[in-house]
Design goal:
Two copies of one chain form a homodimer.
Chain A lengths: L3 H27 L3 H12 L5 H8 L3 H13 L3 E5 L7 E5 L1 H21 L6 H22 L2
Antiparallel strand pairs in A: 1-2
Chain A binds a DNA duplex through helix 4.
GO biological process, one term (chains A, B): response to stress
GO molecular function (chains A, B): DNA binding; DNA-binding transcription factor activity
Keywords (chains A, B): DNA-binding, Transcription, Transcription regulation
DNA sequence: TATTGTTATACTCTATAACTATA
DNA sequence: TATAGTTATAGAGTATAACAATA
């Protein structure tokens, strides 16, 4: 049990610094924040994505998600379309501009992450890391699921 | 190179959810936020800790660090003492109340993190994960060093 | 002139909760 | 009554920059 705390500190520091490194490049080269890139990717990857789906996937509050979507809409990358089955919610869809912003940013995103992962670790160590993170993520989401 | 993006998303989700899980328990059981626990640990672990040392260790801005220290002082966990060698900066020190808050919180912190790491992965997988994170952290800090 | 730290502005996110509309 | 989402408040973070004090 001792030592897990150090592991967590390393996890937090890596996440913070890697997030910042990717964010700096996305903002400079594509005018897109990493948080927005993240949301656009979730919207693109779900069939009928609602605000609450973003909340559960990204683990932010409903209010923050609602305002973040406002900013995506304002930037022209996303729109709300009526949900015919439930008048309380809308489905979120990328606009053509959103699709193109996302695909332009993806190259930078993958490249910067690869600099600190696949170019730094052996294929075996990378695979182990990916497996461990998947395992922990699944356990956390199983318990924290609403 | 493809697939590193997924790894990063898992890293971010694990960090967010694990941070939240620990933060909830620390606030409920010890009246301490995880961000404050983190700063107090850094201060406790450095001989003559200045505000700029927090900035470099935790990767926050100078303004945020200065205000965070104000709140630690206000809570009675920390004090600024004059730096005799440099009148521009102070050394940060834990008060007895800060030392006891930290040691009380440490048990909860280690226990909650262990739930999602050492109790979830084999000793070998845990060791691999710790090594990978240490490697990536060292590389990021070497490049981002001020 | 450069460094350390404080302070200020504007924006984003947090927790929390009131509120509307719909199921 | 419960759920989906919007809106509002206060507190804490971000970026950015002006600023004071000291090196």
């Amino acid at each position: 049990m001792a030592g897990s705390g150090e592991l967590f500190v390393d996890l937090v520091r890596v996440e913070t610094r890697l997030w910042n490194a990717v964010d700096v490049r996305l903002r400079a080269e594509h005018g897109l924040r990493l948080g927005q890139y993240d949301l656009l990717t979730v919207i693109a990857g779900r069939h009928e994505c609602r605000v609450l789906d973003l909340v559960h996937e990204v683990a932010i509050t409903v209010g923050a998600a609602s305002k973040a979507v406002d900013r995506l809409v304002e930037a022209g990358w996303c729109r709300r379309v009526a949900n015919p089955a439930d008048g309380r919610s809308s489905f979120l869809e990328l606009t053509p501009s959103g699709v193109s912003a996302l695909s332009g940013a993806r190259r930078t995103y993958e490249e910067e992450i690869a600099r600190w992962t696949s170019r730094l670790l052996s294929p075996g160590a990378l695979e182990e890391l990916a497996n461990a993170l998947r395992t922990i993520r699944a356990a956390l989401e199983a318990e924290q699921r609403p």
